[in-house]
Amino acid sequence: MGSPMKIRAAVKDGITEVKVLMGHAMETGLRKDADGALVPAWFITEVLAKHQDKVVLDAQFGTAVSKDPYLAFRFKGGVKGEKVSVTWLDNKGDTRSDEVEITEKV
Amino acid sequence: MVNLERRQVLKTGGALGLWGVFASLGLMPSFAHAEWNKTLFSAKSMNEALDLIGAVLPENSGDIQLNVPEIAENGAVVPISVSSTLPNATQIMVFVDKNPNVLAANFNLPAGTETFVTTRVKMGQTATVIVLVKADGKLYRAAKEVKVTQGGCGG
């Protein structure tokens, strides 16, 4: 199920900024291990972020996204205490969802 | 639910079992959105990717701000930040023209989401980061070269 994501969602002046750090190997399928064997591709393909029940970001990743992907984005609205959730899905069918409450940015 | 069924068919091997269990328990993540485009994410050149999108390389736009380092000491972690003042932007695509697969990431922006995204990508060698932003159905481009002193895709 992957390791927990670190998510921060902070609202300021009516805009919520979301920062996400996912834990994932993001293997390209092109790297060789110490024995010279190719390490199979293993990477997040899709990321879906929601504010309450509304989709606020719908992303697809290729193998070029760095290990332990970082993502930041902003959406209009958001109130302290409301929820932001992020779900990823990888090419092996593994998936993980985490959510946080929006805080007020000072 | 059509998407979910199709997705199940697309899954292979051991994942099928777990996915099936999720589906039967109603725990299916709600991925009823844009499918991962395997063909596009496997494109080996910008020309191939543009053909697949059905577009020609658009002109550079001054309304897209692309922030990348001029020199990346570590090609495994190159920060990329894109923002734009183009009205009605719905999509941001990030390409690295010299990578084995040129498309690094695609972001679909629902109404209400700002035209702003930051992430980090791998670059195998010195290359040009090309960003396409779709706004009002039209594509706009920004591009910057990043000099990579140590590649990020090696073994």
Distance between the termini of chain A: 34 Å
CATH superfamily of the largest domain in chain B: SoxY domain
Sum up the overall morphology of chain B in one term.
Answer: globular
> Helix/strand-derived class of chain B?
alpha+beta
Q: Classify the beta-strand content of chain B into a percent band.
A: 35-45%
Radius of gyration over C-alpha positions of chain A, nearest whole angstrom:
16 Å
CATH topology-level name of the largest domain in chain B: Immunoglobulin-like
The H/E string of chain B reads HHHHEEEEEEEE
CATH topology of chain A: Immunoglobulin-like
Biggest interface: A-B, 41 and 45 residues
Gross morphology of chain A is elongated
In this structure, how is the largest beta sheet of chain B organized? 5 strands, mixed
Structural class of chain A: mainly beta
CATH architecture of the largest domain in chain B: Sandwich
Structural domain tally of chain B: 2
What's the order of the H and E elements of chain A? Answer: EEEEEEEE
Total beta-strand segments of chain B: 8
Name the quaternary structure.
heterodimer
Tell me the name of the CATH class of the largest domain in chain B. Answer: Mainly Beta
How many strands in all of chain A? 8
Number of domains of chain A: 1
